[in-house]
Amino acid sequence: MTTKIVVSGMRPTGRIHLGNYTSVIKNWIKLQKTYSCFFFIADIHSLTTNLDNIIKLNYYTKIIIKEWLATGINPEKSNIFIQSHIPETFELHTILSMIAPVSWLERVPTYKAEKNAKTYGFLGYPILQGADILILNADYVPVGEDQLPHLELIRELVRKTNTVIKKITNSSIDVFKEPQPLLNYHKNILGIDGNKMSKSKNNTILISDESEILFKKIKKIKTDEKRINISISGTPDNCNIWKFHEIYSNIKTKKKIKTECLTAKIGCSDCKNILYKTIEIKNKTIIKNIKLYEKKEYYINEIIELGSNNARKIAKNTLKTLKDKLNIL
């Protein structure tokens, strides 16, 4: 393991679904083998768009950590903590807010697209993201291609902050380093309605779905719309079930399914049944692990405390360095 630091977080707005697992968690499991990883529950971030649902915030915070552990995030290799437990992050956020131009924030695609939640916190969301990353002196941030603009804004902020501080202190030393992206190339999983899998759209398949619920959800997944009966050959690339098979099924199964779909030897219902059995095996293992961690509340609290302490050691040093430069006592 290198001393290079990786920082990434997840908002506690609902339980982990297959989209989260394939695009984020599986990547984290790989990264923890190579880097010094800090994975956090972004509880304060969740308030920007989930303020009406805070009654479940505490529950989701804890259950998601248990789900991380159940899927393979190892607390002996990764630091797991809660965003709100690192007060230095919010002090840094305030300082960075004094430097970041408002025009930079107004051009962020998610801000321009949002029509209802345009609060001060929503506008400043990228600055808080930057503080989460910079307070831990991160070398890398795992991102998908769609998240690169967000990271680039943070990198711009680093350059501007370094320039401002070097100018006012007559120094040539940068305070912050620019975090580099660790691109995570993954196949997107759509929800059971054919749209992007999202907790807000209620179209998810959870890693904690028991067999009966899982079966019902998989049966609802949209397939190739042009294949109206089994006698018509299918087009796997146009079928959401096939996208699941690409991720979850083994090579032999994928080859068989693709060949039989193209030659009209397998129907969509049978294809869904095979997928169900594959995911069911995975889910059963995860569910079993979750139930074990649900009996270990003291252990979960210990993990959070240890991860928070390790994060704060770095955070305190980062903040002190910055405040010394700015003559803040």
UniProtKB/TrEMBL annotation:
Taxonomy, superkingdom: Bacteria
Nucleus among keywords: no
CDD domains given in the database record: TrpRS_core (cd00806)
Keywords attached to this entry: Aminoacyl-tRNA synthetase, ATP-binding, Ligase, Nucleotide-binding, Protein biosynthesis
Catalytic activity from the UniProt record: tRNA(Trp) + L-tryptophan + ATP = L-tryptophyl-tRNA(Trp) + AMP + diphosphate + H(+)
Enzyme Commission number, as recorded: 6.1.1.2
GO CC terms: cytoplasm
GO MF terms, alphabetically ordered: ATP binding; tryptophan-tRNA ligase activity
InterPro entries with a match to the protein in the record: aa-tRNA-synth_I_CS, aa-tRNA-synth_Ic, Rossmann-like_a/b/a_fold, Trp-tRNA-ligase, Trp-tRNA_synthetase
The keyword Hydrolase is annotated on this UniProt entry: no
One GO term (biological process): tryptophanyl-tRNA aminoacylation
Family under the similarity heading: Belongs to the class-I aminoacyl-tRNA synthetase family.
Protein name per its UniProtKB record: Tryptophan--tRNA ligase
